[in-house]
Amino acid sequence: MTAPSDVSTALQLAQAMGLDRLDAQLLLGHALQRKRAWLISHDDAPLAAEVAENLLQQFRQRAEGMPLAYLTGEKEFHGLRLRVTPDTLIPRPDTETLVDWALEILRTECPGLPRVIDLGTGSGAIALAIKASHPQADVHALDFSPAALAVAQANSRELNLPLQFHQGSWWEPLDGQRFALIVSNPPYIAGQDEHLPALRFEPLSALTPGRDDATGMRDLLTLINEAPEHLLPGAWLLLEHGYDQAPAVAAALQARGFADVSLRRDLGEQPRVTGGRWPA
Fold it and tell me: Which pLDDT does position 2 carry in this prediction?
């Protein structure tokens, strides 16, 4: 297959390969650092040979299902443009539900310099969004994956949003530290879920607790059971989960002794985040 010579032939080639026109325009615009309006008015603009070859490769990858965010290396989340790589999950708009609830708690219940931690931070999306909107918070970010943590650290530097980083498995690196707010979007997809193959380009360990976890609840329960040792009196734990896991998460929080257990729904009105307050 021949590499395209100009903008118009690039878009025609993408269409012939089965790509959505918008995806093709976004890839082309990213390669040329141009807006979509420019592409439309400059469809005869020539492409340098190296750009054309790279575009052809990206078109092939996109046709095979590679997410657009991995091809462009970036994704917008809560007003921030974040670097993403295949070492991190791609931030979803529904996760902004978790951020918005966290910010509401910080603004109404956490005066001074509250300590906040995002467990399983990935690209740093949640932690950075909280820091951007509530800069007085002392925000920490933890991940088991050194590669994912490196992406989060790069985003922190590029956005000039300082965070404190920890590498390790859930609570292990925290050494008894306590927080005014703990948030997490942990792996929660059941190990044999039929949707996992469609997510094959994203890190499996960030999607599911394991192939042998039939409910996807293992990490959620670990967070709930051990969180009280790291929460200040009156502090909140907020957890993103699957649309069908809300009752189980709420029951686990209540059984562990959390009060004011409640739920927030995502943009599609699906149950998405459940939280509880550790009693004062």
Answer: 85
Give 154's contacts (C-beta < 8 A, 6+ positions apart): 83
Predicted model pTM: 0.94
Give the mean pLDDT of the chain.
Answer: 96
pLDDT digits (tens, 9 = 90+) for 81-95: 999 999 999 999 999
Instruction: Give the tens place of pLDDT for each residue, 95-127.
Output: 999 999 999 999 999 999 999 999 999 999 999
Distance CA 66, CA 59 (A): 9
- How far, CA to CA in Å, does 94 sit from each of 27, 67, 129? 24, 17, 14
Helix (H) or strand (E) holding 277: strand 271-277
Name the amino acid, one letter, at 152. Answer: A
In the structure, what pLDDT confidence band is assigned to residue 4 with cuts at 50, 70 and 90?
confident
Q: Taking the domains of the chain in order of start, what are their residue ranges?
A: 7-66, 74-277
Please, which residues bridge with residue 236 across strands?
Answer: 181, 277
C-alpha 164/C-alpha 139 separation (Å) is: 6
What is the C-alpha end-to-end distance of the chain, expressed in Å? Answer: 66
Q: What are phi and psi of 30, to 5 degrees?
A: -65, -40
Minimal CA–CA distance to 25: which of 86, 68, 73, 85? Answer: 68
Fold classification of 74-277 is Rossmann fold (3.40.50)
DSSP percent split of the chain into helix, strand, coil, nearest 5: 45, 20, 35
